[in-house]
Amino acid sequence: MPELPEVETIVREMHEAGLPGEKIVKAEIFWERSLANLSPSAFCQLIVNQTIQDIGRRGKFIVFSLGDGTLIVHLRMTGKFLIDNVNIKPSAHERVRLYLSDGRILRYEDQRKFGKWYLTRNPLEVLGKIGIEPLSREFTLKAFKGLLQGRKRQVKPFLLDQRFVAGIGNIYVDEALWTAKIHPLRSLETLTENEIQALYKAIIIVLKKGVDNIGTSLGAARANYYSFSGRRGRNQDSLNVFRCDGLPCPRCHTTIKKIVVAQRGTHYCPRCQI
Question: Bridge-partner residues for 219, per DSSP?
């Protein structure tokens, strides 16, 4: 968390806020371990006077295209960006701060300190092993079948593996498997042609719904997901199975159960999902 819909929302709102075109005139690092591949001094030296030419997304990564190089940020569990018009005192959880040429300040908070920043001239060093984008034209049924072919893994760990399909995490995997009526422990080799088609469609459906709902906010605490403009997501109000254990399945009214799969809390309907 955040997953594809949340990161996509953040990137879109950064564009709406007019960040592309702004020059970075100063940088401050308050937690040096947020930087994955450079020291604070080297990072600041390289990023100052760089212009943000574009902002995009790759999987769960935010990708800032600069005049010379690429800044790549993975938010992990609690990372978030904020924008301010005045130079306020750094918050307790603020880790990085970028001063922009229009006077605004791009602030990065991360309560759990797991997020990572990469500044590189070769983005493939960070992004090269990430799989296909599920909302792209390249994500066809044929391409999806090709990823499954010959694999004997359980379906949920496979979908969580970013080397195959990019950007899907625990929330949207559970929702997609419920939508497709597939048990999270099923082996890929047991899936029928119809089930593969259903899962392919379900992945697209739940991700598009998540984007339309500006993401999923699972709580109101500051560490939970908020969009770049400070909005809470709405998708939590549309979840069918994730964190709904003990509640009736919206489809068949059987009590939803929770198990652990791939070290993740996993929610499913024992009747619908076979």
Answer: none
Q: Tell me: the pLDDT tens digits for 100-130?
A: 999 999 999 999 999 999 999 999 999 999 9
Q: Does 60 participate in catalysis according to the annotation?
A: yes
In DSSP terms, which residues pair with 63 in a beta bridge? 56, 72
The model's confidence at residue 176, banded by pLDDT at 50, 70 and 90, is: very high
Residue 266 in tokens: 């996993």
Pairing status of strand 105-110 against strand 116-120: unpaired
Query: By 3-state DSSP, what share of the chain in percent is helix, strand and coil, each rounded to 5?
Result: 30, 25, 45
Name residues whose C-beta falls within 8 Å of residue 176's C-beta, 6 or more positions apart in sequence.
Answer: 159, 168, 199, 202, 203, 205, 206
- 125 is an active site residue: no
Write down the catalytic residue from 57, 60, 156, 209. 60
> Is 137 annotated in the active site?
no
3-state SS class at 211: helix
- Out of 123, 264, 270, 271, the active site residue is 264
Q: Among this protein's residues, is 2 annotated catalytic?
A: yes
